[in-house]
Amino acid sequence: NNIYVPTLCYHPLLRVVGTCRVCLVTADGKLTPSCYTKVQEGMVVETHNQEVEDNIRQVLQFLRCRHPNACMTCEVDGHCEFQNLVYRYQVEEYLPSLFHRDRSHVRDTSSNAVVRDMNKCVLCSRCIRACADVQGMNVYEMTRRDEDEIVSTFGDLPLADTGCISCGQCTAVCPVGALVEKSHIHFVDQGLKNKGNKIYVAQTAPAVRVAISEEFGMEPGSISTGKLVAALKKLGFDYVFDTNFTADLTIMEEASEFIHRFTNKKKLPMFTSCCPGWINLVEKHYPKLEPHLSSCKSPQGMLSTLIKTYFAKKIGVDPLDIVVVSIMPCVAKKDEIKRPQLTREFPLPGGGTKRVPETDFVLTTRETAHLIERNKVHYVSLPDTPYDSPLGESTGSAVLFGTTGGVMEAALRTAYFMITGKELEQIELRAVRGLEGVREAIVDIAGLELNIGIVHGTKNILPIIEQILDGTSKFDFLEFMACPGGCIGGGGEPKNSDLDKEILRKRQEAILRADKTSKIRTSHNNLAVKKLYEEFLQGKPNSPESKEYLHTYYTDRSSLVKTSNLLPFKSQLDASKNK
User: Fold this and answer.
1) 407-432: per-residue pLDDT in tens?
2) d(CA 393, CA 405)
3) How far apart are CA 13 and CA 173, in angstroms?
């Protein structure tokens, strides 16, 4: 009924706990947390009266006394739920002598993707519930008591030493700045303002175009691709390319790889490899499964490689003068760009060589929106602007990468063509679509029966992994996405604490709509991709050149995990340490 009730621990996608006492109302004259109280016939509920407001203000006063006055330099300034509540209820600091503002918690920057500052924590437990109930990872827990109570990692370790896979779901639900993505905004902003002879190139992922509009007041599911390109140009980027281009390229490589494996019955089931959170899960916890991963780089990885090789050569620029910035829905992409496998050596003008990352920086959807706001670019009024060539053309199959099931559907469209030489008559594969956590289907391609599976959300992935390990899995090909909904639910997408439980469905519908309205809907019919193969990759997928530029390898990183709160993981860790 559009009646405002303040919240802090409540989140529409998480289990209700009712601990913060910010959502107080009176029910039949008694104060009660509204999130945890079931409505009964005849109940009289008051959401606004003096008693309710006084008690809410008292709760906020206690929290404010524990909270540092660091709003002006906080990454979530202007986007902080607690800051909004303090302002709305005009909360003054009444009890400064009872609590010390600086709780002396060390700011944890050990992770490549997530920064923890527990001095800012308001003890809402959203991160604990997101990590345990949604993702099944159990990295966080509540420790200590009374005024010393704190959210800590399991074992009180730096985040980099835990089983964290950098999915960033904790940052997506944190109402304050206690958990944020490791920001690259300042590096990018300063670089764009002081470019010198550097050429700045942006690439944008499919899920960004259907979510960033929410940050500017547009309806969830609004597609604003052209405005995004225009905004990035306004910020000073010299070129803006579409990560969808290499999503099409990924499909060419991955479909060919799967057909080879399936025909030869080797390393099955094959796993998709575009989700870095999923790759982290395998490398840190299930390294035995690495041979099942596709060797394809992620679309981000492929495009960054091509920008600093193929594109640099085309425009006659030293690759060392190109700065690649990825605009991603994913916090784990910040971790991905630190992988040593995704660096490349280039010659120096005076002799010798220099090894540099192929992707220099990653901005999440949230960070990108904040950067646009900071530079006073009026996003909504911008004209639609096309991507630059030659790495800006894509198909409907590519945009499907933005949602769960999309990689599988795109791969099957092209695998069918590669096997039969014919196009699919029914191009929309309904069996792989939806938001159920685990979806299975049997697909017949010219008499070949493929058992396929689509799994999103790490908690849903874990049981499937156990099936594969114990030999009971029936799958030939599996798409795994660490985040709920796939990239549309990535840890770097706009935060959703405004009671819209349908946010993933709306974003997914936008992705499917973008596919449906595409002029070309299959990756193998992307003319720009065909030209790339002719000019640079020996004319075909999985060629030696393709292997050099578009494929990667994986490493066993289980020794980096000092402790884990998951029994399957703990048994594996013990076994590996006893080798």
Assistant:
1) 999 999 999 999 999 999 888 898 89
2) 22
3) 9
